[in-house]
Amino acid sequence: MAGERISVVRVRDTLLVSVPSDPDDGTVAALQDEVLRAMERHEARGVVMDISTVETLDSFFARTIAETADMISLMGGRTVIAGMRPSVAITITQLGLTLGRPQTALDVDRALDLLEERTPEAADGPERR
Amino acid sequence: MGPSAGEVAIATELDIVAVRRCVRHVAVGLGFGATDTTRILTAASELARNVYQYAGGGVMGWRALADGGRAGIELVFTDHGPGIPDVAEALTPGYSTSRGLGLGLPGARRLMGEMEIASRPSQGTTVTVRKWLGGP
Fold it and tell me: A88: which chain B residues are within 8 Å (Cβ-Cβ)?
């Protein structure tokens, strides 16, 4: 549906992105734009992408998430995907899709915990400072 | 009882969502569970996107299936685009075009269970997929 809003909210020094349940391609593309702009504006350490209401994650969506995480990493941040539904996990695995570098977490709480860990994780892109 | 067949035109990017909405309604109505519905939706989204991106548009037809005691769903994606020169190659897992993840055909077949492709270079392509309740 055209005009679905993607909400990007700052929570301490991370960005919480709430993705709508069935975004059209334009909305998915706008997600990348909005997230990167918000990264720059807030100098966030990381981004939590909440996909708990997402029912269908096809190759275009997966590719956009992977790309966006790469761009976030270039800007010195980390990405955690939160709330993936079991049916989505099953389907994207069977489809052979990859979401790239982001870690995943069961929910937004755990995702925020992950991002606040001081211990650097391997293969996460450049460390800040 | 609702209709047992229908069509969705694929002309704009927004029609990919229209395909998903229609297919979700049909799949849920036929009794497919959450995971199977997600599989069907994802396959439909991939195939609809192929039609839109590679062929410049086309149409998806859907049909409720009944065979003996079991029910199923059939989706037929038709376009008049450039066609697939080598269908066997396109069905090879890992096949990719310059766009990266490729046509998604092997994946869609895996998700649905049954797939048939008819294609003529410069004339168009028809991709038919079926999924049955309770497994293949």
Answer: 38
Given a contact cutoff of 8 angstroms between Cβ atoms, the answer to whether A80 and A46 are in contact is: yes
DSSP-assigned letters across all residues of A62-119: HHHHHHHHHHHHHTT-EEEEE---HHHHHHHHHHT----S-EEESSHHHHHHHHH--S
Count CA atoms closer than 13 A to B104's CA, side-chain side.
28
Virtual torsion, Cα A32, A36, A41, A44, nearest 10 deg: 110
The percent helix, strand, coil of chain A (3-state, each to 5) is 40, 20, 40
The per-residue pLDDT for A115 is 92
* Euclidean distance between CA atoms A8 and A101, whole angstroms: 21
**Residue B114 gets which letter from DSSP?**
E
d(CA B59, CA B48): 8
**Please, how many CA atoms are within 13 Å of residue B13, restricted to the half-sphere of its CB?**
10
pLDDT band at B69 (very low <50, low <70, confident <90, very high): confident
The crossing angle, in degrees rounded to 10, of helices B34-55 and B14-30 is 150
Residues with Cβ within 8 Å of residue A109, at least 6 apart in sequence: none
Shortest alpha-carbon distance between residue A69 and chain B (Å): 17
Q: What is the mean pLDDT of residues B32-57?
A: 94
A-interface mutation test, from B101, B103, B105, most A Cβ less than 10 A away: B101
